Amino acid sequence: MNTSEPTTEQDAAPDRCALEMNRLDDAAKAVDQALQQLHTASQALYRCRYGEREVNAAIEWNTNNSAVPGGPLSRELRADEIMIQRQRQFVTEFVQDKTNERSGETP
Predict the structure, then answer these.
(1) Strand ranges inside 1-107, DSSP E
(2) Cα(95)–Cα(89) distance, rounded to whole angstroms?
(3) I need a labelling partner for 106 at 20 to 30 A (CA). Which of 39, 70, 76, 82 fits?
(4) Nearest CA to 77 among 104, 44, 99?
(5) For residue range 32-49, what is the model confidence (pLDDT) as tens digits?
(6) 43-90 pLDDT, tens per residue?
(7) How far is Cα 69 from Cα 86, in angstroms, rounded to an integer?
(8) Which of these, 3, 30, 6, 2, lies nearest to 18 by C-alpha position?
(9) Signed CA dihedral, 16, 21, 27, 29: sign only
(10) Cβ of 83: how many Cβ atoms within 10 Å?
């Protein structure tokens, strides 16, 4: 019998859990990439609808005047950005919670 192989299901659990954590990390990275693609596609759609100049001006406004509401396009772009940031934060917290659970910590 090979002693490096787990002999019981319980012995195999840490390896399986490590594999599942890796899969969770990979899935989180894929979600982050998809969110980036969504953001890029959304901005491209705005550029098609409103023109490059208008969108760039709205993005610049949002970057330089974060506390001051801009026009409708600025608000739409800001809302999209906030939504994507929230989704990224959710994924980050979800993975962190699972990592804490695995290590025995309570979130």
Answers:
(1) none
(2) 10
(3) 82
(4) 44
(5) 999 999 999 999 999 999
(6) 999 999 999 999 999 988 888 887 777 788 998 999 999 999 999 999
(7) 20
(8) 6
(9) negative
(10) 14
